[in-house]
TrEMBL record:
Protein name, per record: Branched-chain-amino-acid aminotransferase
Source taxonomy: Bacteria, Bacillati, Actinomycetota, Actinomycetes, Kineosporiales
Pfam families: Aminotran_4
Family stated for the protein in its record: Belongs to the class-IV pyridoxal-phosphate-dependent aminotransferase family.
Presence of keyword Plastid: no
Biological pathway: Amino-acid biosynthesis; L-leucine biosynthesis; L-leucine from 3-methyl-2-oxobutanoate: step 4/4; Amino-acid biosynthesis; L-valine biosynthesis; L-valine from pyruvate: step 4/4; Amino-acid biosynthesis; L-isoleucine biosynthesis; L-isoleucine from 2-oxobutanoate: step 4/4
Keyword annotations from UniProtKB, A to Z: Amino-acid biosynthesis, Aminotransferase, Branched-chain amino acid biosynthesis, Pyridoxal phosphate, Transferase
Top-level taxon: Bacteria
PROSITE patterns assigned to the protein according to its UniProt record, in alphabetical order: AA_TRANSFER_CLASS_4
Amino acid sequence: MSATTTATTTGSAAPLTFPVRPSAAPVAAERRAEILAAPGFGRFFTDHMAVATWTRGTGWHDAAVVPYGPLQLDPAAAVLHYAQEVFEGLKAYRHADGSVWTFRPRANAARMARSARRLALPELGEDAFLEAVTQLVRTDEAWVPSGGESSLYLRPFMVATEAFLGVRAAHEVKFLVIASPAGSYFPGGVKPVSIWLSQNYTRASLGGTGSAKCGGNYAASLVAQEEAGAHGCDQVCFLDAAEQRYVEELGGMNLYFVHDDGSIVTPELTGTILEGITRASIVELAADLGHEVRERRVSIDEWREGVASGRITEVFACGTAAAVTPVGKLVSADGELSHGTGQAGEVTLAIRERLLDIQYGRAEDTHGWLHRLV
Ligand code: PLP
Ligand code: COI
């Protein structure tokens, strides 16, 4: 690492704390204001990052919030060769009174622990995960935008740093959290997105890493995303690997189908789909709004026939980065299928509004999902 860290905890029993070593050269306030006025997604980073090191035998130690900067990695670091890596994505939201909150962070911490187990990485406790996020956001609070649907996107991740080319779980690992101010994930705002159906590539198979949030899944999805782009589409949809028949998810979002009787359906978790926290929240929010919610398999034929017959009235995608986004059309080698009027549907918009109202503190948080950071 370019920035040295102070040892805080050497045993696994003591809680991991993240003392702050402030940057001597933070971004100037005027430049920061310029960035926050139009942050885009994932292009700019705050002045600090949280870091911690794990070594076999010692456990987690050397945790701190340090100046943001490049990592120094040995060229033999395991992550560069065998992709032993997992990550998370969550957001900090500024409320109208200036306070800053995050949404279900313990669910992200728990998912990261599950992903880590699958990738043979060490688990970081939920408290340490939350402490890292909290200390980083408190340190870089000035970077949390306000207004519109802006937020500070938080990216916790864990990488195998041990310099060793043998194929086994690394004995040295780093955990980091970086933060990036974010506007809308799709530059078009709430406009319906177009989906390319991938029939050449699958994302995950049973026993694989589909339900883990690991970089390798995204690396494997990029060629399909390129194919989507080449066909003028915003996102790619993957089918199950075994039969190429059941709808799984998009490259970075889960899917929902709204039916003409008001019920809504999302593909069930089969072990190959990412267990989205937005997806799980919508299961509860849609029920609050009076919808019957079902988690079950949805075939690609059901999607096509349902839209064509009017039985499926709306399709939307959901995830932390993109929130709730309407799907406007499905494109594949077999042709194009337009959904609805080309505008966001009523149910999609109601669910979107309910979720964002909770996240931005405009509606009562009846499920106790918000966690105050500042
Ligand atoms: N599916 C994939 C492949 C993702 O990358 C994401 C984004 O994190 C999601 C679904 C949605 O998950 P969440 O709602 O937890 O952000
Ligand atoms: C998220 O929604 O947090 C994601 O991780 C999706 C994508 C940016 C990878």
